[in-house]
Amino acid sequence: MPGRFNVKKRLGDRANILPKIPKETEVNSVEEILPEASIPAHEPEHDQKHEKEHNSKQKPHSPAWERVLLARHIERPRTLDFIQALCDEFVELHGDRRYGDDAALVGGLARFEGRTVMVLGHQKGRNTKENILRNFGMPRAEGYRKALRLMEHAAKFKLPLLTFIDTPGAYPGKESEERGMSLAIAENLLELCRLPVPVIALVTGEGGSGGALAIGVADRMLMLENSIYSVASPEASATILWRDASQAPAAAEAMKITAPDLHKFGIIDAVIPEPPGGGHTDRPSLMITVREFLLRHLAELEQDYIGRGVEGIRAMLDARYEKYRKIGHWAELSNSKDN
Amino acid sequence: MKELFKRTAKPGEAEANATEQAKTEHNGPLPKFTWNQGSGAADAGSPPAKVSESKKPAKLAKIPDNLWTRCPACKELIYTKELENNKKVCQKCNHHFRLKARERINLLVDEGSFEEINSNLISADPLDFVSLTEPPYPQKMAEVRQKTGLNEAVITGFGQLQGLPLGLVVCDFSFQGGSMGGVFGEKLVRLVEEAIRRRCPVLTVSASGGARMHEGLFSLMQMAKTTAAINRLGEAGLPHISLLTDPCTGGVFASYASVADIIMAEPGAFIGFAGPRIIEQITKQKLPTGFNTAEFLLEHGMVDRVIPRKELASTLEILLRLYGVASAQIANQKEASYAR
Questions:
Q1: Model pTM?
Q2: Which of A243, A317, A324 best tests the B interface by mutation, with the highest count of B CBs <10 A?
Q3: Do the beta carbons of residue A43 and residue A208 sit within 8 Å?
Q4: Are B224 and A337 in contact (CB < 8 Å)?
Q5: What are A120-154's pLDDT values in tens digits?
Q6: Domain A63-325: which topology?
Q7: Chain A 262-291, CB below 8 Å of chain B: which residues?
Q8: Which residues, including other chains, have CB under 8 Å from residue A110's CB and lie 6 or more apart?
Q9: Which of A164, A228, B92, B278 could, after both became Cys, cross-link A79 (CB 3.0–4.6 A)?
Q10: Using the beta-carbon criterion (under 8 Å), do A328 and B183 form an inter-chain contact?
Q11: In chain B, which residue's Cα lies nearest the Cα of A328?
Q12: What value of ipTM does the predicted structure carry?
């Protein structure tokens, strides 16, 4: 995280546009005190024209779309906010030791309720500059390889893994292809399937497709009440299904991407309630609830599996396998030609 | 389709009888071509090399029946039977045509050895999916089943390759873009679990646009489910060989198809995380030709081999024998260590 620095010196002549701030306020970035940039909170290609289109086509009341807007709210706590609020100590670890460091996916060692844990999560920004640095929370292959390295690290030191999911999706750019994005995601899925430590994943905002799942194969899958988790973003879904991105609200509804829907389907284990109006309106109380949920699920996993040594870990991995083994629906044709 | 590939067993005969067959199979009048009428179908074994320039391309598009196939890469006309005898690879430019799942299986395994499992599974509608433009999902799927003669986008089963047992998971792109939903995942997992019971390696042949949108997050979760099964296969000491074919993108490429001991790709196949349109839309850059092809992946170190179709079966056979010997060595070592 950026540290304290001299804002006025950095801004030079433009310092006079700064609002007056009390001396004791810690400023982490220039943008915290500058007026909000007018760009939307998610995909860069998502321009304002689209936004207007969405709003105009939003006439049929869509609770799912309201949740999408809350999940993407510019004030919504980000991964580093969660880590800061929930953990007593945190040392961020950088880089995949292969190619580079991806600021869209952060992670490191932390202390959570007395234990050392590994934390990982997508990091979005709050304004143009931060969003460019964080690539709008869309990791590239090196981000997922950093995650893989930290997972292996967690396994080596038997540290529980907590992941925070908040991404529109993995970054679908040229460099992603050149550096093997699909392989990076697939290798993370594989590693999570066999990681011999408890894994808890929490969707805090947007759970976008494979880019979310790559740090989201877990023993316990939790979602904040106003977060979403989808196979493709509502805009992409609408484009794929109906060749019309402006139908995103209809896609959000049809795809059943809200926490309550997914809980009903049994894909996620718990929905964490948010303060009325969304988590950003009352951050302290949100953090208290999140801490309770994480602690309860982690304590359960530790009690059920970790106390029993190798046998317990085998049982935990078997349970994880069965958890995913069960997901999916099918019917059987009776007039089958099968033999 | 089966009949087509039975013929490949006797290629000489196939060629000799090609004209005869063409005549008998087309019960109507012989197709009329816009080029050199004189030779017509009688000369069908070798397509006319040049098309008169005065003829409009629009007329060419009206080639009747399926007697001739135009190669999308080199634009040459190929006599369809000849193409099929060449494993659907263009003899002029080596373009690999897409294969349907059953064609692929018939090309690979010993004749009569394929035993399909779980072919009766069909998709359910877990979301009660409401579409703006399409018929309801179950009805749409019923139409796709009717049209393709398949029950799902993947065929699973066991066969033998030169007598060596092999589990097969083969995508069919013609079925809803080879998309992976609940049935796809379930069929793959059941096949892998059965392969572990039978102590049998698994070959997956992927051709897919990614996750099935109509099943929402259930589809995304199949990425985890299938990868978990492949993990178990690996834990059992059995190899997973993945063949990526045209086109392979999204959720399939980013899950089980990429967690393989050997990854091979067919020449020229489009393989990528995202499709070219999405990349161009996001990056506002024009992509170079050959971007996200099999050869591109090889160059970037992402696949073990780019494998021409005619070498596939023989390479697989060698690999299976090598793994077979390796697993016997492991077994011997284990016995030796127990004896101590």
A1: 0.81
A2: A324
A3: no
A4: no
A5: 999 999 999 999 999 999 999 999 999 999 999 99
A6: 2-enoyl-CoA Hydratase; Chain A, domain 1 (3.90.226)
A7: 262, 265, 267
A8: A83, A87, A88, A89, A90, A91, A116, A117, A118, A119
A9: A164
A10: yes
A11: B182
A12: 0.82
Domain limits of chain A? 63-325
Containing B336, the helix (H) or strand (E) segment is helix B309-339
Token code pair at residue A155: 């396994």
The lowest-confidence range among A132-146, B218-232, B237-251, B264-278 is B264-278
Instruction: Please report residues of B whose CB lies closer than 8 A to that of A193.
Output: 224, 227-228, 231
CB proximity list for B180: less than 8 A, separation 6 or greater: B153, B154, B208, B210, B211, B212, B219, B222, B223, B226, B251, B252
Give the tokens for residue B6: 């039975």
Confidence of residue B61 (pLDDT cuts 50, 70, 90): low
Please name the residue that has the structure tokens 């997956």. Answer: B204
Residues from chain A contacting residue B253 (CB–CB below 8 Å): 182, 186
Chain A residues touching residue B235 (CB < 8 angstroms): 194
- The owner of tokens 């067919």 is B266
Residue B271 pairs with which residues in a beta bridge?
A: B248
Q: Does A221 touch chain B (CB under 8 A)?
A: no
Q: Which of A264, A327, A336 to mutate to test the interface with B (most CBs of B within 10 A)?
A: A327
Give A230's strand partners: A208
Token couple for B44:
């069908």
Q: Which residues in A lie closer than 8 A to residue B118 (C-beta atoms)?
A: 338
| Cα separations in angstroms, A167 against A97, A133, A176, A216, A311 | 23, 14, 16, 12, 35
The rounded distance, in Å, linking the Cα atoms of B299 and B237 is 29
On chain B, the residues whose CB falls within 8 A of the CB of A188 are none
Instruction: Determine the residue among A42, A177, A244 to mutate to test chain B binding: the one whose Cβ has the most chain B Cβ atoms within 10 Å.
Output: A177
Report pLDDT for B48. Answer: 42
SS3 A22: coil
* Mean pLDDT, residues B7-17: 38
